[in-house]
Amino acid sequence: MNPEQKRERAKMMELLTVKNNTDRILGASKNISQRRIEYEEER
User: Fold this and answer.
1) How many Cα neighbours within 13 Å face the side chain of 8?
2) Nearest residue to 18 via CA among 29, 6, 26, 28
3) Which residues of 3-38 are buried (b: 16+ CB within 10 A; e: fewer)?
4) Which residues of the chain have pLDDT under 70?
5) CB neighbours of 9 closer than 8 A, spacing ≥ 6?
6) CA 6 – CA 1 distance, rounded (Å)
7) What is the CA angle 34-37-39, rounded to 5?
8) Hey, which end of the chain has fewer CB within 10 Å, N or C?
9) Distance separating alpha carbons of residues 41 and 35, to the nearest angstrom
10) Contacting residues for 1 by C-beta, under 8 A, at least 6 apart
11) What is the dihedral of CA 22, 25, 27, 32, to 10 degrees?
């Protein structure tokens, strides 16, 4: 692998990591709002 390929690969990995983190955060906030709705309905 030449340096150029390594840089491209590192960039891709970084983007994937950011995407995964974003998905995780969005998923978590969706779960929290869903729970809040259920909690409100129970009262």
Assistant:
1) 5
2) 26
3) eeeeeeeeeeeeeeeeeeeeeeeeeeeeeeeeeeee
4) none
5) 1
6) 7
7) 110
8) C
9) 10
10) 9
11) -160
